[in-house]
Write a structure and sequence with these properties.
alpha/beta; two-stranded antiparallel sheet
Length: 302
């Protein structure tokens, strides 16, 4: 940590993009009163470097594989409250800002900030004061004017309405086949939507996409659409809506019919009554009547 004898601020840089991470390290090393003591590619490495070096400030990205910036900020704030955190990210949506500040970040900047602005933010948070990018500050004031937990009027990060529906169903635990049936599209179309969602939100797998959906309040289920005949558009075709509103499986009731012997069998009984089969064999297998009878007669005669 910084001491009166050594006023240089010790900084850890955390960013999953190697070019951005190395560029920030080079930029900060040019400043006389800032020393970079470590660089991390994800939130887990950032937390380990904080435990190892006890820096004054962490320059934290939000979207990183594994442990993201929000979770890393929360861990550092809980276990090392003396280390201050400045978020430096390309995302300035309301949810990302509020989640970072709630996790314990004292500063929030976007990546279009210049070197002087970043250096000023590091010194400001090291002194225990908050610092926000002007754009972030304006969005924060606008978000505070709306009721809490109000879903955003437009999907975040450029998601389309259909992609938002797919992400909501994905967060509910549905498979690609189930989502395709509920939205009345092909499974290939759902896979294409999911690939677009991953690219737009920076997710590497399904788990990160689900975490993103919960963070942005995109987990409210869409109403289930019913097929003709009151059947639910779901993974099973024999699913019905009962009088109580619960889903029940369709019971396949047996119907009356005829066995091979020509005798009728009642509904609920077993197809091909054994009694009918025995009578049929006696009738067609008796000597002198039918093919089998003639064959038996010939064999006995020989």
């Amino acid at each position: 940590m910084t001491t009166p004898d050594n006023p240089t601020l010790r900084v850890v840089v955390a960013d999953d993009q190697a070019a951005v991470r190395e560029g920030l390290v080079t930029l900060l090393d040019l400043l006389p009163d800032i020393a970079v003591v470590g660089a991390a590619a994800d939130g887990d490495q950032a937390f380990s470097l904080v435990e190892q070096h006890a820096p004054d400030v962490v320059l934290m990205d939000l979207r990183m594989p594994g442990v993201d910036g929000i979770e890393a900020t929360r861990r550092i704030h809980d276990h090392h409250p003396a280390t201050k955190i400045v978020v430096l990210t390309t995302y300035s949506d309301d949810t990302s800002i509020l989640d970072a500040l709630r996790a314990g970040a004292l500063g929030y900047l976007t990546k279009d900030a210049g070197r002087d602005r970043i250096a000023q933010a590091i010194h400001t948070v090291a002194a225990g004061q908050a610092v926000l990018d002007p754009t972030v500050h304006a969005r924060l004031l606008a978000a505070a004017a709306h009721p809490p937990d109000t879903p955003p009027s437009t999907p975040p990060d450029g998601l389309t309405t259909r992609e938002t529906e797919v992400l909501t169903q994905l967060a509910a635990g549905h498979s690609n086949t189930e989502i395709a049936r509920q939205l009345f599209v092909s499974e290939t179309t759902i896979k294409t939507h999911i690939n677009h969602i991953y690219a737009k939100i920076g997710a590497a797998d399904r788990a990160q996409a689900v975490r993103y959906a919960y963070r942005h309040h995109l987990t409210q289920p869409y109403p289930i659409r019913l097929l003709p005949g009151n059947a639910v558009a779901g993974p099973r075709r024999d699913t019905l809506r009962g009088p109580s509103g619960r889903t029940t499986r369709q019971q396949h009731q047996p119907r009356a019919g005829r066995s091979r012997s020509g005798r009728r069998w009642a509904a609920g009984g077993r197809r091909g009554d054994p009694r009918g089969r025995r009578r049929s064999r006696r009738r067609w297998g008796a000597p002198g009547r039918g093919r089998r009878g003639r064959r038996r007669v010939r064999r006995s005669a020989g």
